Amino acid sequence: MLNEKFDRYSFILDQTAKKVKQFAQSSFTEKGFDITVDQWAVLKALYETEQLSQKDLARRCGKDQPTLTRIVDILLKKGLAERVIDETDRRSLYLHLTEEGKLKVASLSPIVAEIRMKAWEKLTEKDFEDFTRILNTIYNNLNV
Amino acid sequence: MLNEKFDRYSFILDQTAKKVKQFAQSSFTEKGFDITVDQWAVLKALYETEQLSQKDLARRCGKDQPTLTRIVDILLKKGLAERVIDETDRRSLYLHLTEEGKLKVASLSPIVAEIRMKAWEKLTEKDFEDFTRILNTIYNNLNV
DNA sequence: TAAATATATTTGTCATACTAAATATTTGTA
DNA sequence: TACAAATATTTAGTATGACAAATATATTTA
């Protein structure tokens, strides 16, 4: 393959990832969700598996620990999640959603799914499969 | 298509874009380039088309104007670029590379292309075409 | 058991993304 | 021409991402 092409894919990839995030964020804002897209990712992960330590939650969300700490700080301030010290290992914290947090995830989930759907207009199941396969391959190629 | 799938693509897309950036950044750091990946994008755009206004440069790099202002500030401090007031429109600034900046882009370009290549191991020309087509379609679907 | 090592979290710093607002200048219009 | 609207850039504030270092606690090992 020609090198020239390759200098472009990273740009398109980056721009598209940004656009996906922007689109979701502006939908969130417009609908008054009062959370960021990244905060949503953390809330969703906590909803699906309660009682995660911050470390596990970070891995699950694809975020590093300092970033996660800060996002969780915000979720605490918003009353959506709680930190509980793990008495079996006092270095660790378990996180879980408050009732308000659970309600929020349950009520927003279908709307978020709708928002995410929009990206796939004019694309096929096969496109989706190719897309995820290629992304995973790239990820693994670079995951040294 | 099932909604459930769709909640995942944005995650994979985001993680892969991050990984591509991280891989490039750690290669840059390891090789002592002394610039960030985003600073590189701006330098490359300036190298390809000198005399861009900041506004045009921002569009070309896919960055917003405040972000670009700050990146350019850094490039000035590093002695790689210069701002020149456009006398025909004193609101505007033209940007161009210093000699040092030009040398930097010329010498790093082939190494950066190498770094970018790594992502495409085990993938085909057809994959590349599908990938860029799908990314562009998603971008346009969300570009309201 | 004491010291060294490992682990979970937090804090600090810098770079980037986005929004809104401020500033300077130009253009359009009454 | 004077004023309103538009444009280019910068500044400010908040959130996130990456990396290094600090802190507290656990585990391993001499």
Automatic annotation (TrEMBL), chains A, B:
Residues 1-140 form the HTH marR-type domain. One of its GO terms (biological process) is response to stress. GO terms for molecular function: DNA-binding transcription factor activity. InterPro entries: ArsR-like_HTH (IPR011991), HTH_MarR-typ (IPR000835), MarR/SlyA-like (IPR039422), WH-like_DNA-bd_sf (IPR036388), WH_DNA-bd_sf (IPR036390). SMART domains: HTH_MARR. It holds the Pfam family MarR. PANTHER family: HTH-TYPE TRANSCRIPTIONAL REPRESSOR YETL, TRANSCRIPTIONAL REGULATOR, MARR FAMILY. This is MarR family transcriptional regulator. It comes from Sphingobacterium athyrii.
